[in-house]
Amino acid sequence: MKTRKWWALAAAVLSITIISACGAKPTTNGAAQPEQPTAEQPTTEQPTTEQPNEEKPSDETTKPEQPTTDKGQETKSDKQEMSLDVFVSDDQLMELKSYKKMIQFSNDDEKYQAALSALKTSDNDKDIPLWEKIDFKSVGMDKGTLVIDIHIPEEGHLGAGGEAFALDALTKTLFQFDEVKAIDILVDGKSDESLMGHVTLKHPIKRP
After folding, report:
1. Which pLDDT tens digit goes with each residue over 182-208?
2. What is d(CA 185, CA 167) in angstroms, rounded to the nearest whole number?
3. 164 CB contacts (<8 Å, ≥6 apart)?
4. Contacts of the segment 68-75: beta carbons below 8 A, 24+ positions apart
5. In this structure, are residues 100 and 181 in contact, taking their beta carbons and an 8 Å threshold?
6. What's the pLDDT tens digit per position in 129-185?
7. What's the pLDDT score for residue 150?
8. Are 85 and 98 within 8 A, CB to CB?
9. How far apart are the C-alpha atoms of 15 and 2, rounded to whole Å?
10. Are 126 and 91 in contact (CB under 8 A)?
């Protein structure tokens, strides 16, 4: 009798043990899995780079304004100026007088031409420009001698006093140029003995 009780007790203990063991096993099927938190990926905004507006070159290129110079007009830097004493006669052909004349020139040839042109005028209507009616055909420097070729029309002839004054007026005017050492006056290209038939004409007339 006691043996049966022990076996019944053992069987009960074994049953309880088995049941306990089965209840302790985790159940994988049908068990609710905890929700995994979803990590939100941060959205990174890409910076938008504004492209600079490239200005297209204009078809018309702006050029700097160039100073305009009227043709035929020379600037002061191109011209030299000189004050010259120009000799003329009084209205009675009794004496030589002088007046101031400002001449402009770019080179020596222009300077001599300007001086000869001044001999054909006067600043006083009462005075007589002794070379007014005489044509200056050419003028040029030759080794310190200023060679002048002239033409004397009929109305340009003067008397003995006027001829002497004319030569004095010309030499006094032109010898103001330091480089002029002598003056040779030709009449229509010839070395005549006299300018108008009254006064001996030297070839050349040297500076006094």
Report:
1. 999 999 999 999 999 999 999 999 999
2. 10
3. 198, 199
4. 74/106
5. no
6. 999 999 999 999 999 999 999 999 999 999 999 999 999 999 999 999 999 999 999
7. 98
8. yes
9. 20
10. yes
- Return phi, psi of residue 13, to 5°: -65, -40
pLDDT for position 27: 46
Summarize the confidence of residues 15-21 as an average pLDDT: 57
What does the mean pLDDT of the chain come to? 80
pLDDT at residue 147, as a whole number? 98
- Find the angle CA(92)-CA(193)-CA(111) to the nearest 5 degrees: 65
Unique residue bearing structure tokens 């002088």: 98
Torsion, Cα of 35, 36, 37, 39 (10° steps): -150
Cβ 126 vs Cβ 117: under 8 Å: no
Element (H or E) spanning 130, and its range? none
Helices (H), 25-175: 108-118, 160-174
Residue 138, both tokens: 């050419």
Pairing of strands 135-142, 145-151: antiparallel
Helix (H) or strand (E) holding 178: none
Determine the longest span between alpha carbons in the chain, in angstroms.
200
